[in-house]
Amino acid sequence: MTFVGEDSLTPTPALLKVLDGAVDLHTHSGPSPFPRRIDHVDASYDAARINMRAILVKSHHHNTAMDVLAMSKPLADAPTPVYGGVALNTEVGGVNPSAVALALSMGGRCVWGPTVSAAQHIAAHSHDDGFPTIGGNLYERTETVLGDDGDVSEAADTVTKLVAEAGVMLTGGHLDPTSISAFFHAAHRNGVKRLLLHHPDFIVNTPENVLDELVGLGAFVEHELAMYHPGVSAPQWPIQRLVDWIERIGPEHTVIDSDLGQKGNPLPVDGYILIIQASLDHGVSERDIRQMICRNTAYLLGLEDSI
Asked: Which Pfam families match (predicted)?
């Protein structure tokens, strides 16, 4: 089986060498209540087009480690290993240590902080209908990692301890900068080694002082190919913006992944082919690209013990 979309791109041999062994930590394949272009098996075959080492499949609504187990037969023959995790939104009980323990016991490699249930996300989409769902109203509520006293809640603190014990990745989701800072400080105190800050200039809107603080804790800063792809409706930022971010944070602290798989958007691998080539054309070195798409990502997914 091969998976190639109608609009698929073909990398040059030189670019293929740069992309070889990449790890995508932000693949939005299905199943999902949000419309998806591909499922997890399709995503594995798509990833094989550039010999990806692994992908992490993300749902805002459910434990994708369960998906991976349920699809174990077709995935056994698929070329690219697929991993899952759980996002702490309303559908799994919010910041719920039980849901985290379940996902980790099933092989989950990531715990995402609240995303679509975070107040920051809800405020960012207050001007529109948010993300359309297949099944209608999901009755989400606002989820937070903070208690009434403004400190990290007992449940959130327990989550960080579970993540530390399992040695997996924790992300800030779409929380506001104050919440992410508190969450990551608790995680750092409790021994979490793999921390990821999503798209600091989109929804999360992380100030420079907080950004520097989080990087100081060992967090990596993620940027998504989808943000720069002309085939995605928004935000379609110029590639120089990504180059400036890499120079600001440094490739040793930066992660680049796709955030693709949605219906109507380019395939994840096509995002890599187009935007990584554009980054090279704008002066980012092959060595730095591989640091951001291969080495940092492999460490965060737990495929390597160190970078």
From this structure: DUF6282 (PF19799)
* Residue 29: CB atoms within 10 Å: 27
Pick the CATH number of 13-300 from 3.40.50.300, 3.20.20.140, 3.90.226.10, 3.30.420.40: 3.20.20.140
DSSP 8-class letter at 33: S
- Least confident range from 7-11, 241-245, 257-261, 279-283: namely 7-11
CA atoms of 13 and 147, how far apart (whole Å) = 53
Mean confidence (pLDDT) of the chain: 95
Cα pseudo-dihedral 109, 296, 256, 165, rounded to 10 = 30
| 274 alpha-carbon distance from chain centroid | 19
227: three-class secondary structure by DSSP:
helix
SS3 74: helix
Sequence-separated (6 or more) residues with CB below 8 Å from residue 244 = none
Digit-coded pLDDT (tens) for 182-234: 999 999 999 999 999 999 999 999 999 999 999 999 999 999 999 999 999 88
* Mean pLDDT in residue range 58-80: 98
Cα 293-291-57 angle, rounded to 5 deg: 25
Domain ranges across the chain: 13-300
Task: Please state the rounded mean pLDDT for residues 40-67.
Answer: 98
**Secondary structure of 162-202 in HEC code, one letter for each residue:** HHHHHCCEEECCCCCHHHHHHHHHHHHHCCCCEEEECCCCC
